[in-house]
Amino acid sequence: MAGQQRYLRYIVFALVCLVLLLFISSSSSVPSAQWPTSKFKTGGAKPSQPATSNQDALKPASPPTTPNPDSKLPPATASGERMNATFVTLARNEDLWEILKSIRSVEDRFNRKFNYDWVFLNDKEFNDEFKKMTSAIVSGKTKYGLIPTEHWSYPDFIDQKRAAAVRQEMKEKQIIYGDSESYRHMCRYESGFFFRHPLLLDYEWYWRVEPSVKFFCDINYDTFKFMAENKKKYSFTLSLHEYEATIPTLWDSVKNFTKMYPQHIVEGNSLKFISDDEGKTYNNCHFWSNFEIGNLNWLRSQAYLDFFELLDQAGGFFYERWGDAPVHSIAAALMLKKEELHFFNDIAYYHVPFTHCPTGEKFRIDHKCTCQSTDNFDWKGYSCTSKFYEINGLPRPEGYENEQD
Ligand SMILES: Nc1nc2c(ncn2[C@@H]2O[C@H](COP(=O)(O)OP(=O)(O)OP(=O)(O)O)[C@@H](O)[C@H]2O)c(=O)[nH]1
Ligand SMILES: [Mg+2]
Protein backbone atom coordinates (compact mmCIF):
# COMPACT_ATOMS: atom_id res chain seq x y z
CA MET A 1 0.00 0.00 0.00
CA ALA A 2 2.77 2.42 1.00
CA GLY A 3 4.66 1.42 -2.19
CA GLN A 4 1.56 2.19 -4.26
CA GLN A 5 1.16 5.62 -2.63
CA ARG A 6 4.78 6.50 -3.33
CA TYR A 7 4.28 5.40 -6.91
CA LEU A 8 1.23 7.67 -7.25
CA ARG A 9 3.17 10.61 -5.73
CA TYR A 10 5.87 10.11 -8.37
CA ILE A 11 3.28 10.19 -11.16
CA VAL A 12 1.64 13.40 -9.81
CA PHE A 13 5.09 15.02 -9.42
CA ALA A 14 6.06 14.04 -12.97
CA LEU A 15 2.77 15.45 -14.35
CA VAL A 16 3.22 18.77 -12.52
CA CYS A 17 6.76 19.03 -13.94
CA LEU A 18 5.49 18.34 -17.44
CA VAL A 19 2.77 21.02 -17.21
CA LEU A 20 5.30 23.52 -15.82
CA LEU A 21 7.73 22.75 -18.64
CA LEU A 22 5.03 23.16 -21.28
CA PHE A 23 3.93 26.49 -19.79
CA ILE A 24 7.48 27.86 -19.75
CA SER A 25 8.21 26.82 -23.34
CA SER A 26 4.98 28.30 -24.76
CA SER A 27 5.27 31.59 -22.87
CA SER A 28 8.86 32.04 -24.07
CA SER A 29 7.66 32.00 -27.70
CA VAL A 30 4.88 34.57 -27.19
CA PRO A 31 6.04 37.55 -29.21
CA SER A 32 7.47 40.18 -26.95
CA ALA A 33 8.09 43.78 -27.81
CA GLN A 34 11.18 42.57 -29.63
CA TRP A 35 9.87 41.40 -32.96
CA PRO A 36 12.65 40.38 -35.30
CA THR A 37 13.33 43.39 -37.48
CA SER A 38 13.51 42.92 -41.18
CA LYS A 39 16.63 44.00 -43.07
CA PHE A 40 14.22 45.81 -45.39
CA LYS A 41 12.78 49.09 -44.23
CA THR A 42 9.12 50.00 -44.42
CA GLY A 43 8.18 50.55 -48.01
CA GLY A 44 10.11 47.47 -49.06
CA ALA A 45 7.99 44.47 -49.92
CA LYS A 46 6.88 42.46 -46.92
CA PRO A 47 7.12 38.68 -46.75
CA SER A 48 4.25 37.54 -48.91
CA GLN A 49 2.89 34.97 -46.40
CA PRO A 50 2.26 35.45 -42.73
CA ALA A 51 4.53 33.28 -40.55
CA THR A 52 2.97 29.84 -40.26
CA SER A 53 4.39 29.03 -36.84
CA ASN A 54 5.96 30.80 -33.92
CA GLN A 55 9.26 29.37 -35.03
CA ASP A 56 8.90 31.03 -38.46
CA ALA A 57 8.01 34.35 -36.86
CA LEU A 58 11.41 34.42 -35.22
CA LYS A 59 13.30 33.98 -38.48
CA PRO A 60 14.41 37.12 -40.31
CA ALA A 61 11.92 38.12 -43.04
CA SER A 62 12.71 36.45 -46.33
CA PRO A 63 14.03 38.86 -48.95
CA PRO A 64 11.30 40.48 -51.07
CA THR A 65 11.24 39.40 -54.68
CA THR A 66 10.91 42.95 -56.02
CA PRO A 67 12.51 45.36 -53.56
CA ASN A 68 11.40 48.96 -53.91
CA PRO A 69 14.30 51.28 -53.28
CA ASP A 70 13.15 53.89 -50.77
CA SER A 71 14.20 56.64 -53.15
CA LYS A 72 11.52 55.58 -55.63
CA LEU A 73 8.65 55.82 -53.18
CA PRO A 74 6.73 59.07 -53.07
CA PRO A 75 6.88 60.87 -49.74
CA ALA A 76 3.83 60.46 -47.53
CA THR A 77 3.11 64.13 -47.94
CA ALA A 78 4.46 66.01 -50.91
CA SER A 79 6.25 69.18 -50.04
CA GLY A 80 5.62 72.51 -51.70
CA GLU A 81 2.71 74.88 -52.02
CA ARG A 82 -0.82 73.75 -52.73
CA MET A 83 -3.21 75.16 -55.30
CA ASN A 84 -6.55 76.68 -54.34
CA ALA A 85 -8.32 73.45 -55.19
CA THR A 86 -10.82 70.92 -53.92
CA PHE A 87 -12.43 67.65 -54.77
CA VAL A 88 -16.17 67.93 -55.27
CA THR A 89 -18.79 65.23 -55.01
CA LEU A 90 -22.52 65.43 -55.51
CA ALA A 91 -24.10 62.60 -53.59
CA ARG A 92 -27.05 61.32 -51.62
CA ASN A 93 -26.78 59.88 -48.12
CA GLU A 94 -27.38 56.43 -49.56
CA ASP A 95 -24.33 56.83 -51.81
CA LEU A 96 -22.10 56.70 -48.72
CA TRP A 97 -20.60 53.23 -49.14
CA GLU A 98 -19.91 53.67 -52.84
CA ILE A 99 -18.40 57.13 -52.43
CA LEU A 100 -16.16 55.80 -49.67
CA LYS A 101 -14.65 53.36 -52.15
CA SER A 102 -14.02 56.18 -54.60
CA ILE A 103 -12.44 58.37 -51.93
CA ARG A 104 -10.20 55.54 -50.73
CA SER A 105 -9.01 55.06 -54.30
CA VAL A 106 -8.32 58.79 -54.80
CA GLU A 107 -6.55 59.03 -51.45
CA ASP A 108 -4.37 55.95 -52.04
CA ARG A 109 -3.29 57.00 -55.52
CA PHE A 110 -3.07 60.77 -55.08
CA ASN A 111 -4.48 62.73 -52.21
CA ARG A 112 -2.66 61.16 -49.28
CA LYS A 113 0.37 62.94 -50.72
CA PHE A 114 -1.36 66.29 -51.21
CA ASN A 115 -4.22 66.48 -48.68
CA TYR A 116 -6.59 68.58 -50.76
CA ASP A 117 -10.05 69.44 -49.37
CA TRP A 118 -13.24 67.70 -50.33
CA VAL A 119 -16.61 69.41 -50.79
CA PHE A 120 -19.75 67.27 -50.68
CA LEU A 121 -23.01 68.62 -52.07
CA ASN A 122 -26.51 67.25 -51.67
CA ASP A 123 -30.08 68.35 -52.37
CA LYS A 124 -30.94 67.05 -48.85
CA GLU A 125 -28.97 67.49 -45.61
CA PHE A 126 -26.11 65.02 -45.22
CA ASN A 127 -26.63 62.81 -42.18
CA ASP A 128 -24.11 62.35 -39.38
CA GLU A 129 -22.99 58.94 -40.57
CA PHE A 130 -22.16 60.30 -44.02
CA LYS A 131 -20.15 63.12 -42.50
CA LYS A 132 -18.40 60.91 -39.97
CA MET A 133 -17.34 58.19 -42.41
CA THR A 134 -16.23 60.50 -45.24
CA SER A 135 -14.31 62.89 -43.00
CA ALA A 136 -12.53 59.88 -41.50
CA ILE A 137 -10.86 59.00 -44.78
CA VAL A 138 -10.37 62.31 -46.58
CA SER A 139 -6.88 63.57 -45.77
CA GLY A 140 -7.82 67.21 -46.35
CA LYS A 141 -10.67 69.25 -44.85
CA THR A 142 -14.21 68.10 -45.58
CA LYS A 143 -17.14 70.44 -46.17
CA TYR A 144 -20.81 69.56 -46.56
CA GLY A 145 -23.19 71.77 -48.48
CA LEU A 146 -26.93 71.85 -48.99
CA ILE A 147 -28.05 72.78 -52.48
CA PRO A 148 -30.46 75.72 -52.51
CA THR A 149 -33.96 74.70 -53.69
CA GLU A 150 -33.85 77.18 -56.60
CA HIS A 151 -30.96 75.18 -58.06
CA TRP A 152 -32.70 71.83 -57.78
CA SER A 153 -36.30 72.47 -58.88
CA TYR A 154 -38.32 73.43 -61.95
CA PRO A 155 -37.78 76.97 -63.18
CA ASP A 156 -41.05 78.95 -63.76
CA PHE A 157 -40.72 78.76 -67.52
CA ILE A 158 -40.86 74.94 -67.58
CA ASP A 159 -44.19 73.34 -68.41
CA GLN A 160 -44.16 70.47 -65.93
CA LYS A 161 -46.95 68.59 -67.71
CA ARG A 162 -44.93 68.56 -70.88
CA ALA A 163 -41.89 67.40 -68.93
CA ALA A 164 -43.89 64.54 -67.38
CA ALA A 165 -45.18 63.45 -70.78
CA VAL A 166 -41.61 63.33 -72.09
CA ARG A 167 -40.55 61.17 -69.16
CA GLN A 168 -43.36 58.73 -69.90
CA GLU A 169 -42.43 58.60 -73.57
CA MET A 170 -38.75 58.02 -72.78
CA LYS A 171 -39.70 55.32 -70.31
CA GLU A 172 -41.58 53.49 -73.05
CA LYS A 173 -38.58 53.82 -75.33
CA GLN A 174 -36.41 52.45 -72.50
CA ILE A 175 -34.01 55.37 -72.64
CA ILE A 176 -31.61 55.13 -69.71
CA TYR A 177 -32.74 57.45 -66.88
CA GLY A 178 -35.38 58.65 -69.39
CA ASP A 179 -38.13 58.58 -66.78
CA SER A 180 -36.10 60.02 -63.92
CA GLU A 181 -36.88 63.48 -62.57
CA SER A 182 -33.96 63.53 -60.10
CA TYR A 183 -31.47 62.59 -62.83
CA ARG A 184 -32.59 65.66 -64.79
CA HIS A 185 -32.18 67.94 -61.77
CA MET A 186 -28.75 66.41 -61.26
CA CYS A 187 -27.68 67.04 -64.88
CA ARG A 188 -28.96 70.61 -64.76
CA TYR A 189 -27.22 71.22 -61.44
CA GLU A 190 -23.89 69.85 -62.67
CA SER A 191 -24.27 71.88 -65.87
CA GLY A 192 -25.08 75.22 -64.37
CA PHE A 193 -24.87 75.50 -60.60
CA PHE A 194 -22.35 73.44 -58.67
CA PHE A 195 -19.54 75.93 -59.28
CA ARG A 196 -21.70 78.71 -57.80
CA HIS A 197 -22.33 76.92 -54.53
CA PRO A 198 -21.04 79.10 -51.67
CA LEU A 199 -18.63 76.35 -50.58
CA LEU A 200 -17.01 76.33 -54.02
CA LEU A 201 -16.69 80.09 -54.29
CA ASP A 202 -13.56 79.82 -52.15
CA TYR A 203 -11.76 77.68 -54.72
CA GLU A 204 -10.30 78.08 -58.19
CA TRP A 205 -9.85 74.42 -59.17
CA TYR A 206 -12.02 71.32 -58.80
CA TRP A 207 -11.73 67.60 -59.33
CA ARG A 208 -15.07 65.85 -59.62
CA VAL A 209 -15.46 62.40 -58.11
CA GLU A 210 -18.51 60.14 -58.25
CA PRO A 211 -19.47 57.04 -56.28
CA SER A 212 -18.08 53.67 -57.44
CA VAL A 213 -15.19 54.97 -59.52
CA LYS A 214 -11.67 53.56 -59.45
CA PHE A 215 -8.19 54.94 -60.02
CA PHE A 216 -5.65 52.37 -61.13
CA CYS A 217 -2.23 54.04 -61.19
CA ASP A 218 -0.16 56.17 -58.82
CA ILE A 219 -0.37 59.89 -59.50
CA ASN A 220 2.84 61.31 -58.07
CA TYR A 221 2.51 64.97 -59.01
CA ASP A 222 0.05 67.74 -58.28
CA THR A 223 -2.49 67.61 -61.10
CA PHE A 224 -3.97 70.97 -60.08
CA LYS A 225 -0.57 72.60 -60.29
CA PHE A 226 -0.08 70.95 -63.66
CA MET A 227 -3.33 72.53 -64.88
CA ALA A 228 -2.32 75.96 -63.63
CA GLU A 229 1.26 75.86 -64.87
CA ASN A 230 0.23 74.64 -68.31
CA LYS A 231 -2.69 77.07 -68.63
CA LYS A 232 -5.24 74.26 -68.83
CA LYS A 233 -8.88 74.92 -68.00
CA TYR A 234 -10.65 71.61 -68.54
CA SER A 235 -9.56 67.99 -68.69
CA PHE A 236 -10.76 64.44 -69.22
CA THR A 237 -9.72 60.80 -69.15
CA LEU A 238 -12.54 59.18 -71.13
CA SER A 239 -14.51 60.45 -74.08
CA LEU A 240 -17.34 58.89 -76.01
CA HIS A 241 -20.40 59.45 -78.17
CA GLU A 242 -23.60 60.64 -76.51
CA TYR A 243 -26.83 58.72 -76.82
CA GLU A 244 -28.58 60.75 -79.52
CA ALA A 245 -32.11 60.21 -78.17
CA THR A 246 -31.27 62.24 -75.05
CA ILE A 247 -30.23 65.40 -76.93
CA PRO A 248 -32.24 65.72 -80.19
CA THR A 249 -32.31 69.55 -80.15
CA LEU A 250 -29.18 70.37 -78.13
CA TRP A 251 -27.20 71.32 -81.20
CA ASP A 252 -29.95 73.71 -82.40
CA SER A 253 -29.57 75.58 -79.12
CA VAL A 254 -25.79 75.57 -79.48
CA LYS A 255 -26.14 77.12 -82.93
CA ASN A 256 -28.48 79.77 -81.51
CA PHE A 257 -25.85 80.49 -78.89
CA THR A 258 -23.09 80.95 -81.46
CA LYS A 259 -25.31 83.39 -83.37
CA MET A 260 -26.33 85.35 -80.28
CA TYR A 261 -22.90 85.44 -78.66
CA PRO A 262 -20.26 85.21 -81.39
CA GLN A 263 -17.88 87.03 -79.02
CA HIS A 264 -17.80 83.95 -76.75
CA ILE A 265 -16.55 81.58 -79.46
CA VAL A 266 -12.76 81.63 -79.32
CA GLU A 267 -10.36 81.34 -82.19
CA GLY A 268 -8.32 78.16 -82.24
CA ASN A 269 -11.06 76.18 -80.51
CA SER A 270 -11.87 72.45 -80.79
CA LEU A 271 -14.97 72.65 -83.00
CA LYS A 272 -13.53 69.73 -84.97
CA PHE A 273 -13.80 67.53 -81.90
CA ILE A 274 -17.57 67.98 -81.72
CA SER A 275 -18.55 68.47 -85.34
CA ASP A 276 -17.45 66.67 -88.51
CA ASP A 277 -19.08 69.21 -90.84
CA GLU A 278 -17.79 72.54 -89.56
CA GLY A 279 -20.64 73.07 -87.17
CA LYS A 280 -23.68 72.00 -89.17
CA THR A 281 -24.28 68.99 -86.95
CA TYR A 282 -23.06 67.56 -83.66
CA ASN A 283 -21.10 64.33 -83.90
CA ASN A 284 -22.08 63.49 -80.29
CA CYS A 285 -18.48 63.41 -79.04
CA HIS A 286 -18.05 64.50 -75.46
CA PHE A 287 -15.70 64.24 -72.53
CA TRP A 288 -17.14 62.02 -69.83
CA SER A 289 -17.85 64.41 -67.00
CA ASN A 290 -17.97 61.95 -64.09
CA PHE A 291 -14.23 62.69 -64.03
CA GLU A 292 -13.20 66.30 -64.46
CA ILE A 293 -10.37 68.46 -63.28
CA GLY A 294 -11.20 71.99 -64.24
CA ASN A 295 -11.08 75.66 -63.55
CA LEU A 296 -14.06 77.00 -61.59
CA ASN A 297 -13.45 80.57 -62.72
CA TRP A 298 -13.94 79.47 -66.29
CA LEU A 299 -17.32 77.95 -65.40
CA ARG A 300 -18.16 81.16 -63.54
CA SER A 301 -17.18 83.30 -66.56
CA GLN A 302 -19.79 85.36 -68.39
CA ALA A 303 -19.25 83.25 -71.50
CA TYR A 304 -20.10 79.98 -69.75
CA LEU A 305 -22.98 81.52 -67.79
CA ASP A 306 -24.53 82.93 -70.99
CA PHE A 307 -24.18 79.50 -72.56
CA PHE A 308 -25.88 77.73 -69.67
CA GLU A 309 -28.61 80.34 -69.44
CA LEU A 310 -29.51 79.96 -73.11
CA LEU A 311 -29.62 76.16 -72.85
CA ASP A 312 -31.67 76.32 -69.66
CA GLN A 313 -34.23 78.61 -71.28
CA ALA A 314 -34.53 76.20 -74.19
CA GLY A 315 -35.83 73.64 -71.67
CA GLY A 316 -33.88 70.64 -72.91
CA PHE A 317 -32.84 69.54 -69.41
CA PHE A 318 -36.53 68.68 -68.83
CA TYR A 319 -38.12 68.32 -72.27
CA GLU A 320 -35.31 66.05 -73.38
CA ARG A 321 -32.61 64.65 -71.09
CA TRP A 322 -29.56 66.74 -71.72
CA GLY A 323 -26.55 65.51 -69.81
CA ASP A 324 -23.94 67.71 -68.17
CA ALA A 325 -21.23 65.86 -70.10
CA PRO A 326 -22.19 67.13 -73.58
CA VAL A 327 -23.00 70.55 -72.09
CA HIS A 328 -19.56 70.95 -70.46
CA SER A 329 -17.83 69.43 -73.47
CA ILE A 330 -19.47 71.63 -76.09
CA ALA A 331 -18.70 74.68 -73.97
CA ALA A 332 -15.07 73.61 -73.57
CA ALA A 333 -14.74 72.84 -77.26
CA LEU A 334 -16.11 76.22 -78.38
CA MET A 335 -15.09 78.61 -75.65
CA LEU A 336 -11.61 77.39 -74.77
CA LYS A 337 -8.52 77.30 -76.91
CA LYS A 338 -7.39 73.85 -78.02
CA GLU A 339 -4.34 74.11 -75.77
CA GLU A 340 -6.53 74.76 -72.74
CA LEU A 341 -7.97 71.23 -72.88
CA HIS A 342 -6.02 68.36 -71.44
CA PHE A 343 -6.22 64.61 -71.79
CA PHE A 344 -4.96 63.07 -68.53
CA ASN A 345 -3.56 59.96 -70.15
CA ASP A 346 -1.73 59.15 -66.93
CA ILE A 347 -4.88 59.09 -64.79
CA ALA A 348 -6.11 55.53 -65.14
CA TYR A 349 -9.80 55.53 -64.33
CA TYR A 350 -12.96 53.48 -64.30
CA HIS A 351 -16.61 54.46 -64.17
CA VAL A 352 -19.03 51.76 -65.14
CA PRO A 353 -18.80 50.52 -67.89
CA PHE A 354 -15.63 52.14 -69.31
CA THR A 355 -11.96 52.07 -68.37
CA HIS A 356 -9.12 54.35 -69.31
CA CYS A 357 -5.90 52.36 -68.89
CA PRO A 358 -2.78 54.09 -70.26
CA THR A 359 -1.34 52.38 -73.32
CA GLY A 360 2.18 51.04 -72.81
CA GLU A 361 3.46 48.51 -70.31
CA LYS A 362 6.40 50.58 -69.07
CA PHE A 363 4.14 53.35 -67.83
CA ARG A 364 1.86 50.89 -66.10
CA ILE A 365 4.74 49.20 -64.31
CA ASP A 366 6.39 52.47 -63.29
CA HIS A 367 3.11 53.75 -61.83
CA LYS A 368 2.07 50.51 -60.14
CA CYS A 369 -1.10 50.26 -62.20
CA THR A 370 -3.68 47.57 -61.66
CA CYS A 371 -5.66 47.98 -64.88
CA GLN A 372 -5.51 45.67 -67.85
CA SER A 373 -4.55 47.12 -71.23
CA THR A 374 -7.22 45.04 -72.97
CA ASP A 375 -9.86 46.97 -70.99
CA ASN A 376 -8.64 50.31 -72.33
CA PHE A 377 -11.50 52.10 -74.08
CA ASP A 378 -9.43 54.86 -75.75
CA TRP A 379 -8.96 53.29 -79.17
CA LYS A 380 -12.29 51.50 -79.47
CA GLY A 381 -14.84 52.65 -82.02
CA TYR A 382 -17.27 54.26 -79.55
CA SER A 383 -14.57 56.41 -77.93
CA CYS A 384 -13.75 59.91 -79.22
CA THR A 385 -10.19 59.95 -77.89
CA SER A 386 -8.74 59.10 -81.34
CA LYS A 387 -10.48 62.18 -82.66
CA PHE A 388 -8.95 64.28 -79.88
CA TYR A 389 -5.51 62.98 -80.86
CA GLU A 390 -6.25 63.65 -84.52
CA ILE A 391 -7.39 67.26 -84.15
CA ASN A 392 -4.45 68.06 -81.90
CA GLY A 393 -1.90 66.37 -84.14
CA LEU A 394 -0.84 64.00 -81.35
CA PRO A 395 0.91 60.77 -82.27
CA ARG A 396 -0.92 57.73 -80.91
CA PRO A 397 1.06 55.75 -78.38
CA GLU A 398 2.94 52.67 -79.45
CA GLY A 399 0.83 49.55 -79.15
CA TYR A 400 -2.56 51.26 -79.53
CA GLU A 401 -3.43 48.91 -82.42
CA ASN A 402 -3.56 46.00 -79.99
CA GLU A 403 -6.22 47.78 -77.94
CA GLN A 404 -8.65 48.50 -80.78
CA ASP A 405 -11.95 46.57 -81.01
N1 LIG B 1 -27.70 64.61 -54.00
C1 LIG B 1 -27.99 63.92 -55.08
N2 LIG B 1 -27.02 63.46 -55.86
C2 LIG B 1 -27.35 62.75 -56.95
C3 LIG B 1 -28.69 62.47 -57.31
N3 LIG B 1 -28.69 61.75 -58.46
C4 LIG B 1 -27.40 61.56 -58.79
N4 LIG B 1 -26.58 62.16 -57.89
C5 LIG B 1 -25.12 62.24 -57.92
O1 LIG B 1 -24.79 62.80 -59.18
C6 LIG B 1 -23.71 62.13 -59.78
C7 LIG B 1 -24.13 61.48 -61.10
O2 LIG B 1 -25.13 60.52 -60.84
P1 LIG B 1 -25.02 59.02 -61.33
O3 LIG B 1 -26.19 58.30 -60.79
O4 LIG B 1 -23.66 58.52 -61.00
O5 LIG B 1 -25.17 59.20 -62.87
P2 LIG B 1 -24.38 58.51 -64.05
O6 LIG B 1 -22.91 58.55 -63.77
O7 LIG B 1 -24.85 59.12 -65.32
O8 LIG B 1 -24.93 57.05 -64.02
P3 LIG B 1 -24.34 55.74 -63.34
O9 LIG B 1 -23.95 54.91 -64.49
O10 LIG B 1 -25.51 55.22 -62.56
O11 LIG B 1 -23.19 56.12 -62.46
C8 LIG B 1 -23.20 61.14 -58.74
O12 LIG B 1 -22.17 61.78 -58.01
C9 LIG B 1 -24.42 60.89 -57.88
O13 LIG B 1 -24.04 60.55 -56.57
C10 LIG B 1 -29.73 62.98 -56.45
O14 LIG B 1 -30.92 62.82 -56.68
N5 LIG B 1 -29.32 63.70 -55.37
MG1 LIG C 1 -21.99 57.84 -62.06
Q: In a nutshell, what does this entry contain?
A:
It comes from Periconia macrospinosa. The protein has 405 residues and is of the alpha/beta class. It has a domain at 85-343: Alpha-Beta Complex (Spore Coat Polysaccharide Biosynthesis Protein SpsA, Chain A).
Word description of this protein:
- This protein has helices spanning 2-28, 54-57, 96-114, 128-137, 160-172, 181-192, 223-229, 250-260, 271-274, 296-299, 302-314, 316-319, 324-335, 361-366, 385-391, and strands at 85-90, 117-122, 142-146, 205-208, 214-215, 234-236, 239-241, 285-287, 292-295, 341-343, 349-351, 354-356.
- By secondary structure, the protein is α/β, with parallel strands linked by helices.
- The chain has a domain at 85-343: Spore Coat Polysaccharide Biosynthesis Protein SpsA, Chain A, CATH 3.90.550.
- Strands 3-2-1-4-9 form a five-stranded mixed β-sheet. The chain has a three-stranded antiparallel β-sheet with strand order 5-11-12. The protein has a two-stranded parallel ribbon with strand order 6-10.
- Helix 4 (128-137) links the parallel strand 2 and strand 3 (142-146).
- Helix 3 (96-114) packs parallel to helix 4, helix 6 runs parallel beside helix 13 (324-335) and helix 8 (250-260) packs across helix 11.
- It is globular, with a radius of gyration of 29 Å.
- The model is unreliable at 23-58 (pLDDT under 50).
- The protein binds guanosine-5'-triphosphate (GTP) and magnesium ion.
- Residues 89-92, 95, 122-123, 182, 186, 210-211, 290, 352 line the site of guanosine-5'-triphosphate.
